[in-house]
Amino acid sequence: MPVTFATEQWPDCLPELVQLWPAHWHEVAMHQDRIPLDPNYVEYERAYGSGQLHLTAVRDQGRLVGYLTAIVRPHLHYAHSLSAFYDLYYVLPSHRRGMVGVRLFTEAEKALKARGVERLFTGTKLSKDASAIFERLGWEPAERLFVKWIGD
After folding, report:
1. CATH architecture, domain 4-136
2. Dihedral (C-alpha) 105, 14, 7, 138: value to the nearest 10 degrees?
3. Residue ranges of the domains in the chain?
4. How confident is the model over 18-32, as a mean pLDDT?
5. Alpha-carbon radius of gyration of the chain
6. Mean of the per-residue pLDDT values for the chain?
7. Other Cβ atoms within 10 Å of 102 Cβ, number
8. pLDDT digit string (tens) for 96-140?
9. pLDDT tens track for 52-75
């Protein structure tokens, strides 16, 4: 059975997402020694309940092996332009072959376009730079994001 890609509902996928998040976090999160993984389930549920949370799932024989979540809403600067802001994207290392990552982004884009989204926004970790994939898919570099720890 080939790997499949589909838009899924947050509550249906959440138990499996929770199982993958620690590996995702360990692979890419900054300041792990200061900030533990602690997803804000209340805000995710609020975004889902208001129709703003999009989820594209990657499955291999029914098992979740990757995902992309995005927040879909009018842009704060362009009220009449629906935008999608990619929140998370991840594919298990064992499935990072055969264009699975590229297909994840392509399938999410098709689904979001069908919802009326006009622009997609995302970032990429410098330590796991996916810029080449985004550029291959027609994305344009727009900004650099900086992070500074100011906590105690």
Report:
1. 3-Layer(aba) Sandwich (3.40)
2. -10
3. 4-136
4. 96
5. 16
6. 96
7. 14
8. 999 999 999 999 999 999 999 999 999 999 888 999 999 999 999
9. 999 999 999 999 999 999 999 999
Assign 3-class secondary structure to the chain. CCCEEEECCHHHHHHHHHHHHHHHHHHHCCCCCCCCCCCCHHHHHHHHHCCCEEEEEEEECCEEEEEEEEEEEECCCCCCCEEEEEEEEEECHHHCCCCHHHHHHHHHHHHHHHCCCCEEECCCCHHHCCHHHHHHCCCCCCCCCCCCCCCC
* Residue whose entry in the numeric block shows the structure tokens 């720890």: 149
Q: Match 């392509």 to its residue by tokens.
A: 106
